[in-house]
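chain and backbone:
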Amino acid sequence: MTINTFPENFLWGGAIAANQTEGAWNIDGRGLSNIDLIPHGPDRQSIKLGYKKAKMSDNEYYPSHTGIDFYHRYKEDIALLAEMGLKVFRTSISWSRIYPNGDETIPNQAGIDYYTDLFKTCKAHNMELLVTLAHFDIPMGIVEQYNGWKHRATIDLYVKFAETCFECFGDYVNYWIPFNEINVVLHSPFSGGGLYFDDTENREEILYQAAHYMLVASASAVESCHRITPKAKIGCMIAGGSFYPYSCNPEDVWQSMNDERTNTFFVDVQAKGKYPYYMDAFFKSKGIHVDISEKDKDILKQTVDFVAFSYYASRTSIADISRVEKNEGNIIVSAKNPYLKMSDWGWVIDPLGLRITMNQIYERFEKPLFVVENGLGAKDVIEADGTIQDDYRIDYMEQHFQAMYDGIQDGVPLLGYISWGVIDLVSASTGEMSKRYGMIFVDKDDTGDGTLARKKKKSFDWYKQVIQQNGVEI
């Protein structure tokens, strides 16, 4: 038995997001966020996709309102993560906890105090911090007043929020991400950008206009971060995963190339400082007009220090998807890959795809990479003896670690690996608690019932050992 040793100072970590864990949705001055209006149940998808306007109802259950009560339990949770040995902890800042309505001149001090103490607690346990500024999170005040990222005014509001975070938390945070999975705004507009649509609007044009404003805001945040906290690194992040052609039919290969471009042009802008050539032809072919000023182009020249991505699955592209069975488990619909097994929620399991994705991203952008989300959503069972034997999660992670190690041997510089949902949390896609990713179990069900007690799974000690030996036994 050998150990595949990772590079010295490799950052093994775990991730959560404010909107899926904190709860305390209306406590200590926090304002209403878009996530607070997305219910669990049949209306969830239509609201996330911007087809149905969100409205609070007494007849709906809103998982984000309570999350896993991380807001009140963060000290015990961070202690557990420290026991696991995490080198880096990824979390996000709730925008509406800092600026409740989004357009205030003075931040909410209670929010500043909360995150200051959270970050101090992490540093006391010798954990690095990777903080996402906007993780599917925008104040509803901005949505109602400015239509979210439809409006250019949102850029300045976001930059003010970002600069407040750099100024207040810069002593604790060494790694920043402006937007979580920025490309998801094209697929889940309300959760990704606070966007609604009506029947008279050109949905596709609005999506790319909103994406542009987010890209300008991201570049502005890069400039602010480098100026305010020059020792920190700031990256960009997409929902990653390569697009394979369904067959060697040239039409399928062409489709996969275009799908890949749609998914990664965001990184072209953030890592290279300009739109790639093919987007001009794309906009022209679709009749899309995007307001891109000369000042915007100048701002976009501020490029990121690293490229982060989530990796859960690869995708399969086909020119005519009506000919085959769809894989609809993920928000990005693709053809079902007949060569791969699937998770309980219909996500393909493709460890080699992580190595492929690493190589493709680095070859294209030549920036250090960071895997900031990966994991298996599964149904965990508490055994009669009280244990949770999640060997399937260990097997999943071990296979992906091997692929990641192989990618590093290929010459890809990788800063670290961060396991998604290291503590069980509310699923962003389905709103369920039963879709569990964590190595720490949280006693809560899909209706919100439970004690919220924390319990270690078998994978807890396994990941602890991986971190201790900086590698995986193969």
Notes: DSSP finds 15 helices and 16 strands in the chain. The longest strand covers residues 128-134.
